[in-house]
Write a structure and sequence with these properties.
Elements: H1 7-42, H2 45-71, E1 80-83, H3 86-114, H4 121-143, H5 150-179, H6 184-211, H7 221-229, E2 234-246, E3 249-258, H8 265-282, E4 286-292
Parallel strand pairs: 3-4
Antiparallel strand pairs: 2-3
Length: about 300
């Protein structure tokens, strides 16, 4: 039994994600050059760290947009689910990018602790303030879709980390201007790096769950098992598997034993009840169930007979 009624909703989520990602991409790409120039001119590692993070924002948004395009390609004999998993691969690259930029920040900060560098506080403050505004705007655009897509979530985490980094830049610039504490620059940079590394680890964990075909976090296997077993006409369930193909698109396969007196229309009725339970209670949109008798005889085809 195959159920695809969730496909339309999945496509709507994809289109919403695409619009949000394009808006965020335009905002971050437009400001990236300003932040790089400001970081180099002011000599601020915190500002350059934030610019480096923003560069990964632009890259992650570009990857996310590519993944959405690839995921929408038609299925083929070689890729029977299409390229839906491109989203997970893009999110994997985003997570790795976050860790790479965190490593660079830590390395540069270590050098600044050994040899402090003079920083232009007022310029640092001005660029950081504008950067914070851009990041807040991009995060607002992406926030609602973060729960619908790994790609949007990855981009949102990048932008959120960037916003926190901009706050750090503002704090460091104020400390430098008020007290001359140039050490605040690498200290804030390390804090930004730690946030970036944490965000990357969280995203990579979620990607691993998808690529390893783990059960989606919001679905309890025992509850699904119990709901299937409770359907009228069902005697038992075995070989139950639940996994995520891509964000919001979950799949299930199982062998379901039905009572021996279920024949013809009764088999079809069991099939329809299973479909409704899995879609309405658990949001599972792609279902493959083999219906069989207690002796192991396959009776799935009976559900399709006139």
């Amino acid at each position: 039994m195959h159920e695809h009624h969730g496909h339309h909703a999945h496509e709507e989520r994809r289109e919403r994600s695409r619009r949000r990602l394009w808006i965020a991409f335009a905002l971050t790409a437009g400001f990236l050059g300003v932040e790089v120039v400001g970081g180099l001119w002011s000599g601020s590692l915190a500002l350059l760290s934030d610019a480096g993070h923003m560069l990964t924002d632009v890259a992650s948004l570009g990857l996310a947009l590519f993944a959405l395009w690839a995921g929408g390609r038609a299925i083929s004999r070689r890729y029977t689910f299409g390229l839906q998993r491109a989203e997970a691969l893009a999110a994997l690259a985003n997570g790795a990018g976050l860790w790479a930029i965190a490593g660079w920040i830590f390395w540069e900060a270590a050098g600044r602790f050994r040899t402090p560098v003079e920083v232009d506080g007022p310029l640092m403050l001005a660029v950081g303030a504008v950067g914070l505004g851009v990041n807040v705007a991009a995060a607002w655009v992406l926030h609602e879709g973060a729960g619908e897509s790994l790609n949007v979530e990855g981009a949102f985490l990048h932008v959120l980390g960037d916003a926190a980094g901009s706050v750090g830049v503002l704090v460091a610039s104020i400390l430098i201007m008020a007290f001359g504490w140039v050490i605040a620059d690498p200290v804030i940079a390390v804090a930004i790096g730690a946030l970036v590394a944490f965000s990357g680890g969280r995203l990579l964990w979620k990607v691993a769950q998808v690529l390893l075909e783990g059960t989606p976090g919001h679905i309890d296997v025992q509850t699904v098992y119990d709901d299937i077993a409770a359907v009228e006409g069902v005697d038992g369930v075995h070989d139950l598997h639940i996994w995520t193909i891509t964000s919001g698109y979950h799949a299930l396969s199982a062998h379901v034993t039905i009572c021996d007196d279920c024949v013809g229309p009764a088999v079809r009725s069991v099939q329809e009840r299973l479909r409704g339970v899995l879609a309405e209670r658990h949001g599972i949109s792609h279902v493959t169930v083999q219906l069989e008798r207690g002796d192991g005889t396959d009776c799935t085809e009976e559900a399709h007979l006139p």
